[in-house]
Design brief:
heterodimer, A: 206 residues, alpha+beta, 7-stranded mixed beta sheet, two-stranded antiparallel sheet, B: 261 residues, two-stranded antiparallel ribbon, 31% helix, globular
Chain lengths: 206, 261
């Protein structure tokens, strides 16, 4: 959780391939917010919750991470790989654009990498910095088993090509505060009005 | 009399227990040598994928074997399993949580069906094994039959696909075995693979939105590697339609293991 409080300055000269070079400001997750929201109340995970996947991941800060650590906030999830030349920066950009439309609502953004070999925590850190992702973004590296299992839960299809890159579906998923899958939108540069509305509604829910 | 009965039941139980232990260790893992596999759909530079040597169960996991797993892992019993990991059809053909059923004796040694991907994966992991990948499964599955089949394999497979599910699923080892010694790779049940969800029905990262057509439009079928292999096409379509918690009447699994473990 420490990383939520870690404040780092994001250099503004970073460019996302779609041209949405998000200039970001420092903001810890609790800044200007009710701290109670940041305190994760230990609730019982509902049966339909994706947080029932107990696999361990590593964050971009090389911290051990389990999905249930997302409990208590609405979460937006995308599955990507960072050596991806085309689609993944666009999916990330779509998510950044969603984040920008939320007027500072306290929401988790999660990117999980397919590329268990190359997307080490260090690499993910580099990607996060390069892409100007704020500190409510968590980037995850996991075992092949953990990543495949999450992809199955999120109905994301992917396959490693012979050249080491990945073909994959581009899906933005929205989880409620208990980790239940509430909304999905497929496609790059898709119209995310409904995604944003769903997030705003979920943020209001307990 | 009572005394004799006790002894008798002791003998039977011991025999039964020994039999179980035996059936466990008896299950052969067969080594599948390194080879290559050409994915049904052309991907990347379309080079065949090298599949390193691995081990594979000689035959599919049976109801009897799966029952042992459920008994040892109650969270995987029918009444306790999480719907996220297995839909309402999970083990629906069993009498109850820990009972396949007296009336179901005929299927004790049949492949277990109505099991989800999550359950199959958990079973293999419990056995210190794993699910085979699509490449591994397809490479092992394309090996030539060494008995019982007197027509080209593809023809045999399609003939099987055309038949409705049998009322009582036959035992494992009841169809052909192939040159690796693997039984029933085709002809009994479809099988889960670890990466079953890698079939890209849409949204390939490089070509954008056109990929759905790869599978279903004739114009794009030049992208497939072997136009003849309609059976492979059916398997890929089938896998593409699955979700991880689906439990289906003709879908079972077998486990695999890395070489050198």
């Amino acid at each position: 959780m420490k990383k939520y409080f870690a404040v780092f300055v994001v250099v503004s000269s970073l460019i996302l391939s779609c041209g949405k070079g998000a200039e970001t400001e420092d903001k810890s997750c609790c800044a200007g917010k009710d701290t109670a929201i940041c305190e994760t109340d230990k609730e019982i995970t509902p049966a339909e919750s994706i947080f029932n996947l107990k696999a361990q991941f590593k964050t971009q800060d090389d911290k051990t991470f389990t999905l249930e650590m997302l409990t208590g906030k609405t979460t937006v999830v995308g599955m990507v790989f960072t050596h991806c030349a085309y689609a993944c920066p666009r999916l990330t950009a779509d998510m950044v654009s969603i984040a920008d439309s939320l007027n500072g609502e306290d929401v988790n953004f999660l990117l999980v990498s397919f590329d268990v070999e190359r997307d080490t925590p260090e690499r993910l850190k580099y990607f996060a910095t390069k892409s100007g992702l704020k500190d409510n973004w968590t980037l995850l590296h996991g075992s092949e088993d953990a990543v495949r299992t999450l992809s199955v839960l999120l109905n994301v299809q992917y396959e490693k090509d012979a050249d080491g890159n990945f073909s994959h579906s581009n899906i933005v998923s929205v989880l409620d505060k208990q980790g239940r899958l509430q909304f999905q939108k497929e496609g790059l540069g898709a119209d995310h009005a409904q995604t944003i509305n769903t997030i705003k509604k979920l943020v209001q829910q307990p | 009399m009572k005394y004799i009965l006790t002894i008798l039941s002791l003998i039977i139980c011991t025999g039964f227990a020994a039999g179980q232990a035996k059936s466990d260790s008896d299950k052969k893992l067969l080594k599948i040598k390194k080879g290559s596999y050409k994915p049904f759909f052309k991907i990347g530079n379309n080079q065949p994928i090298t599949v390193v040597a691995f081990y594979m169960d000689e035959y599919a996991v049976t109801n009897e074997e799966f029952l042992e797993f459920v008994k040892a892992n109650p969270q995987w019993s029918r009444s306790k399993v999480n719907r996220l990991f297995a839909d309402a059809n999970y083990l629906v053909h069993w009498e109850s949580d820990n009972v396949i059923g007296e009336s179901q004796k005929a299927i004790y040694k049949s492949p277990v069906i109505y099991v989800s991907w999550f359950a199959a994966k958990a079973y293999c992991s419990w056995k210190n094994k794993r699910l085979p990948s699509i490449a591994e499964w397809e490479m092992a599955g394309k090996a030539a039959p060494k008995n019982k089949i007197n027509m080209p394999l593809t023809e045999y497979i399609l003939e099987w696909y055309r038949r409705p599910n049998p009322k009582v699923l036959p035992n494992v080892k009841s169809t052909y075995s192939n040159i690796h010694g693997l039984y029933d790779m085709h002809g009994l049940v479809w099988e889960w693979t670890f990466n079953f969800n890698s079939f890209l029905s849409k949204g390939d990262s490089r070509t954008g939105e056109e990929d759905e057509k790869k599978a279903f439009c004739a114009a794009a079928s030049i992208n497939v590697n072997d136009l003849e292999d309609y059976a492979a096409f059916l398997r890929f379509s089938y896998r593409g339609a699955l979700k991880g918690n689906f439990c289906i009447a003709n879908l079972g699994f077998r486990c695999a293991k890395d070489n050198g473990q």
